[in-house]
Amino acid sequence: MDKTGLVILLLLAIFTLSSSWADVNCGRQYEFICMVPVMKLLTVELKCDASLDLNDPTVQENVLNQVEKRMRDHGIHPKFTLRWRIPPSRKTG
User: Fold this and answer.
1) What integer pLDDT is reported at residue 85 of this predicted model?
2) Are residues 77 and 39 in contact, defined by beta-carbon separation less than 8 angstroms?
3) Lowest CB count within 10 Å: 5, 15, 71, 91, which one?
4) Average pLDDT for residues 6-13, to the nearest whole number?
């Protein structure tokens, strides 16, 4: 129970050495491990026709769609996000 008198339910799962779940006493303290998803960053430099306006959102979307399709065609995991970013030193126009 917390200071407000509300009951707090805490779900704790312990995986024992015998490879089974165990019931535990709520009064005991245990080590806690957090798992953070791993994020990999892949930077791609593109070369394209000089006549394309790379600041045009439509062109950017089309390029991202083509890159996404190529990644999926090559078996890249479906859970990825593509973003368009141009460093200030390389902006065109």
Assistant:
1) 77
2) no
3) 5
4) 52
